Amino acid sequence: MKAWLCGLDDEEMLSVSSVLTFIGVEHSASFTAFHLPDFIVIGQTVECAQLDEMIPIITLSHSLVNIDDDKTEDNVWFCPLPWRSQDFWAVLKEIQQRRLLPQPSGVNLNLHVRHLEALLIRQALLSAQGVVSRAAQNLQIQRTTLIEKMRRYNIDKSEF
Prior knowledge:
Layout: E1 2-6, H1 10-23, E2 26-28, E3 39-42, E4 57-59, H2 70-73, E5 76-78, H3 85-100, H4 109-127, H5 132-139, H6 143-152
């Protein structure tokens, strides 16, 4: 299995990385490391995420603001740290079983692209330590374009 790590602080990154490494899950904070992950781990400080019903999400917080439809809600697991091996194994087993179920015939490309764009913006802001101009430079877009996209996806630079 493969996992993207998004919006984790240093302490969360250390804890999550050690557990994932121990159980043999490939993981990376770089969104270019994998074509598509099996699941995404979102840090505790991330309150709102543009969710794609196709990719399971494990959040370290107790809640996410942007969960309104049943399909998306069924694809999110709330797993605050510290992780207990039995509980986490149960979540991974459920994620793996869902991958084996038949997928819908179509993919909502627009939703998928928005989700990926929001994740890439968060990653760029994280690596730029919240400096918008540096994040825009890393994404190879104009600073004003990045600011507009941050508004669209409700991303606050103070999170980073």
